[in-house]
Amino acid sequence: MTSDHQSNRLANGDAKGSGAAEFVPAGADLAQLRAAARKCRGCGLYRAATQTVFGTGPSDAAVVMVGEQPGDYEDRQGQPFVGPAGRLLERALEEVGIDRDAVYLTNAVKHFKFVERGKRRIHKQPGRTEVVACSAWLAAELQVVEPALVVCLGAVAAKAVLGTDFKVSERRGEMVALPAYQVIATVHPSAVLRAPDFESAYSDFVADLRKVHAAM
Description:
Blueprint: H1 3-10, H2 30-37, E1 63-67, H3 72-77, H4 84-96, E2 104-107, E3 114-117, E4 120-123, H5 128-145, E5 149-153, H6 155-162, H7 168-171, E6 175-177, E7 182-186, H8 189-194, H9 198-215
Parallel strand pairs: 1-2, 1-5, 5-7
Antiparallel strand pairs: 3-4, 6-7
Helix pairs in contact: 1-5, 4-9
């Protein structure tokens, strides 16, 4: 599958307006993609963000996990899933027997979108335009890694991979077969942290990851 074709599918047919595509080098490996992404100006989010936060993990990972966007910790450190949500994800992966270092971790959007409140930077969900603008990077990552399974963490990631009609609330934990790989969607670990009943939300999240482990 070509990078252009995959980015079109990832964006639910709306990649025409993708701003990142011109910054993605053809035939690049992950290191080259990461370097190129630092200079991406495909949407306006780069202006306020500290840096591009590209994916990390093995180039031959069987599983790719896709989140929404980097948060404050990730934006400062330049690595995905290093904040509280990342620590919860690591705990859950360990509980089900998945080695985090064997998983490729990335986000649908590579720059932190936020609003400032005093000294704090508060996460703001990326819009569809920004997800589409960034879709060429995710398509390129998936083309290089060629995973057997893609795990979408949250609605933004699920819509980026499976299209805007996909609802995590209705199809959570369901295996979806695509030509290049299988996809399963669950909630983002940050949603577990915010849940009124943390223990129940965490238990459900772990149950979804057990399905991932079984499919590996």
